[in-house]
Amino acid sequence: MHKLWASTYKELLLLTRDLGGLAILFLMPLLLVITITTIQDGTFKTLIESKISILLVDKDKGKVSENIQKNLKGSERFEIILKSDEGEAKNLVQTGKYQLAIIIPENLSNDLNLKISENVEGILEKFGAKEENIPLVKSKLKPKEIKLYFDPATQFSFRNSIKSGIDQMVSKIETQTIYKAFQEELTDDPSEEIFDTEPFLTFTEIVPSEAEKEVIPNSTQHNIPAWTLFAIFFIILPLSINMVKEKNQGTLVRLRTNPVSYTTVLGGKTVIFLSVALIQFALMLLVGVYLFPLIGLPKLDVSGKLPLLFFVAFFAGLAAVGLGLLLGTIAKTQEQSAPFGATFVVILAALGGVWVPVFAMPKFMQVLSNISPMNWGLNAFYDVFLRNVALKELLPEIALLFLFFVATTVISIIYNERKNAV
Amino acid sequence: MIQITQLSKKYKGAEDYSVHNLDLAIQEKEVFGLLGPNGAGKTTLISMLSSLLKPTSGSFSIDGLTYHKNNAQLKQLIGIVPQEYALYPSLTAYENLHYFGSMYGLKGNSLKENIQQHLETLGLSQFTHKKIANFSGGMKRRINLIASILHKPKVLFLDEPTVGVDVQSKNVIIDYLKQLNTDGTTILYTSHHLNEAEHFCTRVAIIDLGKIVCKGKPAELIAQQKGAKNLEEIFLSQTGKALRDYA
């Protein structure tokens, strides 16, 4: 125990002697979480609050295009800039000056009305007919195409969201035109409302939660756990570098000749670097709770969750330390440990669902994500932050994190013993 | 005290043995010098005796103990002064010594006093709380030595303990080692300073290509070779004048 205490104290001294390194260790994760949350929250607000300028080329000049324009202008997302030339609009989008141009084809209103009228007449004729075999009315009109030009730099998700919005709007206009055509056929009084054209089916977003503790997730609630975990795992870098330095300085060689086990040496590092991870976590929470509201970001809600949050952070920290010990044991130079450690943490984060949710990944990657400790940690944090689960429900993820620490540490010890067996 | 039997070491991928079928017995309270050109096998032998390298074949025991059976006991019995400084540059002399002393189970005031006493004896007491990073080569060598003897080892291995230090530091180190030997410590040391070895060692062995080419008391070895005036002449006659560069 005395040797473990001495090793821990030595690690503390080594860490505190490098004040610049210590500051980076604590400040960079904070900077990371502030930057990411600000960007994500800003993007979210941009999409909702500020309007995206889009180009519209109206070759139709009819009721339908007027309706499309009205709907687009009515939308909170777009600001419409009218252009007369498709080529010019295309060029402006291609050069990245605008993200989107919508080209409404010629005769859209006329052809849509004609097509719908033909269909409606055909249907009504069929209903009124006495004989069974009445030939169906078939339109000779070709389907119309609304062209969308996207800036090649726009992201796939943005394109999908726009396409889906426009598709929804066009469907609505088409439905309204059908209703209108029926109305014109069935009554001579245009003021008479036969149909209720308002959507019958709507949807409401509900977050499943217990009545007394309803949770409304926001960007902070999502970002703090994800990026805190990312920062905690980044501890493998300073830890592995610390171990490689000991090899290069010759101090590890001296320790191997001393009557002290490698487990004790690793124990001292575990205590200190786990403490660093927990302090990092505490700082992240403080930033989320106190700093975020001051800079216009949503406040982090930790009410009643602190013990469970620290419980998860403790085991996530252990898993990260275990990985750092293994990397530090195997790596021979800082050139090996630093790039590998940094890249590996990014891979683990990607697999863990820090950037893209696991359910949105390809099947194979979903399977792989099950073996990422960051995935276990992130799930555990989401369980506490967003799903309000009890300790019992966290245990499977906690057990996995702990087993990961045990496995990596045992491998480190065995590797060291095999390599240095006498 | 140290009994080495048919000890060999061949590194992975190497064509030749670094130490080959080496037999050697070192008595208690001896100062035994292991001399040889670069790549002769001195450091390899000391590394095997220090539990840092696994022998390819053969065996050895120190005070009747082996690493297989008495690892912790044996490590407590010996002290190793490595060729590298093997100290934490960002820690002070005291912090380094306190840490390495603790690894031998030393603690409390006795460790504190032990450290102070050694620092005083080796002329470093005014630098107790200075960082190792700011020390000169000679000062680092002295701290390197203290870190290995705080637990009062019965056997001390030193791998070129005076390399790269000034004459003053070298004298202090050698005088202190003589004192340790007088107090009962058996010393096995390697060096390229043949003059130093001639005066410091009770016995020496010249090792080349992994084998002992001659051994005995320095004065006797010099007397045995016709016309030889010092150990350096014996050394050159046994190992030749060809350069021993290796990588």
Keywords:
heterodimer, A: 422 residues, mainly alpha, D-Maltodextrin-Binding Protein, domain 2, four-stranded mixed β-sheet, 67% helix, B: 247 residues, alpha/beta, Rossmann fold, six-stranded mixed β-sheet
Structure description:
The complex is a heterodimer of chains A (422) and B (247). Chain A is mostly helical. Chain A has helices at 2-17, 19-48, 63-74, 86-94, 108-128, 156-186, 219-233, 236-249, 251-257, 262-294, 306-330, 334-352, 363-369, 373-385, 391-419, and strands at 52-58, 78-83, 100-104, 147-150. A four-stranded mixed beta sheet of chain A has the order 2-1-3-4, sandwiched between helices. The two termini of chain A are 25 Å apart. Chain B has 247 residues and is an alpha/beta fold. Chain B has one domain (2-239): Rossmann fold (3-Layer(aba) Sandwich). In chain B, a hairpin with a 2-residue loop joins strand 8 (203-208) and strand 9. The model of chain B has no long low-confidence stretch (mean pLDDT 87). Chains A and B meet through helix 1 and helix 9 of A and helix 2 and helix 3 of B.
